[in-house]
Amino acid sequence: MKRPKAEGGKATTRSGETRDQATKKPLPDAPRKKKTPSLPPSSAEDNEPERLNKVLARSGVASRRAVDEMIRKGQVKLNGEVVTELGTKVNPAEDRVTVAGKRVALVPRSHQVKVYFLLNKPAGVLTTVKDDRDRKTVMDLVAGASESRIYPVGRLDYDAEGALLLTNDGELAATLMSPRKALPKVYRVKVKGEPAEDKLDILRRGIRLEDGPTKPCQIDVISKARVNTWLEVVLTEGKNRQLKRMFWRIRHPVLKIHRIAFAGLELGRLPPGQYRELTRAELEKLKRAVA
């Protein structure tokens, strides 16, 4: 069968187009090859060895300092072998770690969602993750706050109350507890009697305790009663039971301790026993303080 001719005598294709029209028609786009999705920038770091205490802190086991103590006690195993060196490094993507006989799900750098909570710790609660005598701890007060395992930064005495930070950010927690940072902690302290200014000046300058000298601190009298005095004390260190030992030295025993601010984080009107997440502004302020 002869193909029909278009006007002007030009041969046409089967679709009815002239050859010139067919050759000028744009070719269909070639199918694009699918690009292999690139891994997130931080994923490469997940395979790099890290210090064991840092990985376990990030995985919610405990603070880096507490992990070091677990290693000293022989409670940590790496690939079936007891860890003996504090500086041991692990690969979270490949190594197997157990603590006290239980395997830990190691969290790589890129997978951890960091959370930060401020708790108004009441008196009669322990600042610890777990108590062998089943006493109430701060962890009971923040149960359900996060899917990640969080832990307290620093400590408050059993009978003390006030601002306490809890987080799963092991690196920030270690920095906050470093003596070199000298971050301010503000306390309202009720002491027995009415301490004279010359005695308070002794504490302001610093005294020597059993575990070393205290740093200079700020002490202001808030109010005086017939038998007791309220003071505001600003410390930049955290010796064990420091306030009680300081005021015992000048013969004015501490009757009550309330920490109203920690490293710039203020309780405000947060009720005792309650907690809240840090605001973005508070977190940025905190990170600037330790930078």
Task: Please give a structural write-up.
The protein is α+β, with helices and mostly antiparallel strands and 291 residues long. The protein is built from 8 helices and 17 strands. It has helices at 19-24, 52-58, 64-72, 138-141, 170-176, 197-205, 242-249, 280-290; strands at residues 50-51, 76-78, 81-82, 89-90, 97-99, 102-103, 116-121, 151-152, 161-167, 185-192, 208-209, 212-213, 218-224, 228-235, 254-262, 265-266, 275-277. Strands 7, 8, 9, 10, 13, 14, 15, 16 and 17 form a 9-stranded mixed sheet that branches. It has a 4-stranded antiparallel sheet with strand order 3-2-5-6, with no helix packed on it. Strands 1-4 form a two-stranded antiparallel ribbon. Strand 13 and strand 14 form a beta hairpin. Helix 2 crosses helix 3. The longest helix has 11 residues, at 280-290. The protein is elongated. It starts with 18 loop residues before the first helix and ends with a helix.
Summarize the structure.
With 291 residues, this protein is α+β, with helices and mostly antiparallel strands.
How is the secondary structure organized here?
Layout: H1 19-24, E1 50-51, H2 52-58, H3 64-72, E2 76-78, E3 81-82, E4 89-90, E5 97-99, E6 102-103, E7 116-121, H4 138-141, E8 151-152, E9 161-167, H5 170-176, E10 185-192, H6 197-205, E11 208-209, E12 212-213, E13 218-224, E14 228-235, H7 242-249, E15 254-262, E16 265-266, E17 275-277, H8 280-290
Parallel strand pairs: 9-15
Antiparallel strand pairs: 1-4, 2-3, 2-5, 5-6, 7-9, 7-17, 8-9, 10-14, 10-15, 11-12, 13-14, 15-16
Helix pairs in contact: 2-3
